[in-house]
């Protein structure tokens, strides 16, 4: 959940600042907030390539099971153009202390989410109203 929201904020912030998203992904409205299409395929590819590890965890505050994703090594931001790297840093710093639940709730207050319905695509036109 958190990774999906961070990716959404990264792409939409890049679009807001630079007029183009970083990944070109299409996002849609889901109950827990914005989600990229085929997100499960992206995660599977990252795990298969050895970029991410996953482990099952229990969220004690909600008594539900979930999955924690951990990077195998520190990211190399030099692979990103400077404008995109700045967006990554902004998103990271803004949401650093947010839980998956809190970032999900935060995303529900974004205009792009509030003005779309379940399973509807969230247009990049909403990026100009992003709250970060």
Write the layout of secondary structure elements.
Layout: H1 2-18, E1 27-30, E2 33-36, H2 39-48, E3 52-59, E4 64-71, H3 82-95, H4 100-107, H5 111-114
Helix pairs in contact: 1-3, 1-4
**Shape, per Cα inertia axes:** globular
Number of strand segments:
4
Please report which band the strand proportion falls in: under 5%, 5-15%, 15-25%, 25-35%, 35-45% or over 45%.
Answer: 15-25%
Approximate helicity band: 40-55%
Order of helices and strands: HEEHEEHHH
Strand order in space, largest sheet: 1-2
User: For the CA atoms, what is the radius of gyration?
Assistant: 15 Å
Average pLDDT metric: 93
Number of helical stretches of at least 4 residues: 5
Mind summarizing the main beta sheet?
2 strands, antiparallel
Structural class, please?
alpha+beta
**End-to-end Cα distance:** 18 Å
- Poorly predicted spans: none
Structure description:
This protein is of the alpha+beta class. It is built from five helices and four strands; from the N terminus they run H-E-E-H-E-E-H-H-H. The protein has helices spanning 2-18, 39-48, 82-95, 100-107, 111-114, and strands at residues 27-30, 33-36, 52-59, 64-71. A hairpin with a 2-residue loop joins strand 1 and strand 2 (33-36). It starts with a helix and ends in an 18-residue tail after the last helix.
Concise description?
Helices cover 40% and strands 18% of the residues. It contains five helices and four strands. It has helices at residues 2-18, 39-48, 82-95, 100-107, 111-114; strands at residues 27-30, 33-36, 52-59, 64-71.
């Amino acid at each position: 959940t958190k990774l999906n929201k961070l990716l959404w904020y990264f792409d939409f912030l890049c679009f807001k600042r630079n007029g183009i998203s970083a990944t070109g992904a299409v996002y849609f409205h889901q109950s827990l907030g914005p989600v990229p299409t085929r997100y499960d395929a992206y995660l599977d590819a990252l795990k298969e390539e050895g970029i991410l590890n996953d482990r099952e965890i229990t969220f004690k505050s909600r008594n539900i099971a979930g999955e924690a994703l951990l990077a195998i090594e520190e990211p190399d931001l030099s692979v990103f153009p400077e404008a995109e790297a700045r967006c990554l840093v902004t998103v990271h710093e803004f949401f650093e202390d947010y839980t998956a639940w809190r970032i999900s709730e935060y995303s529900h207050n974004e205009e792009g989410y509030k003005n779309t319905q379940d399973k509807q695509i969230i247009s990049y036109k909403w990026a100009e109203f992003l709250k970060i």
